[in-house]
Amino acid sequence: MAAYPGQGFPGAGQPPAGPYSGAPYGHPPPGGPYGGGAAPGAPYGQPGGGPQPGPYGGAAPGGNAPPGVDPEAFSWFQAVDADRSGYISVKELKQALVNSNWSTFNDETCLLMINMFDKTRSGRIDMYGFSALLRFIQQWKNLFQQYDRDQSGSISFNELQQAFSQMGYNLSPQFSQLLLARYAPRSSNPSIQLDRFIQICMQLQSTTDAFREKDTGLVGNVRLSYEDFLTMVVTRMM
Prior knowledge:
calcium ion binding; mainly alpha; 2 strands; 238 residues; two-stranded antiparallel sheet
């Protein structure tokens, strides 16, 4: 019987109560298995960490948060909502999130996260979705820092292999090398930033869930038609 991995990181497990109570598919308990919060002042994963001196000119403005919304998240929402529409678009989210090297998050990761918290399927998120998204990013940031063992601000090949193993994935070194070749900048020692780490893990979990649905006998392999395969890819990874 196959044992499927991926239940120990943000986005895995059963949905919690309510539409915006953290990661939509479950999340680690407070201070859970991945240690405490992020290091103070750590740049990556902003605005989930602290105020960034980026395109919005330093600390986010204050204001009265509506019921059920964290005041800090509300302040960040006001700062990130550049067009004052009351919603955050992919473009606005991308401008607000940076990695440890101060590069902005890539479009694909921002779109994945917007879609995860977009309850109206409008391509945007409201302040409640944004508040939940910040908690989601902070959980990923904590996990990323745990696996970034040399504190370089990026995940190397060995660190990625260890991360997969601790998540419960039995994946070959060749698969990790393939991911780095696809998502890491070319170098003699390729590594990925937080945004790509989130993207890879979200897509890996989504594809695993799709495979699990087909593997009704839990034997670890399935037979798929070509169209079933394409359907799985389109619905889970795009």
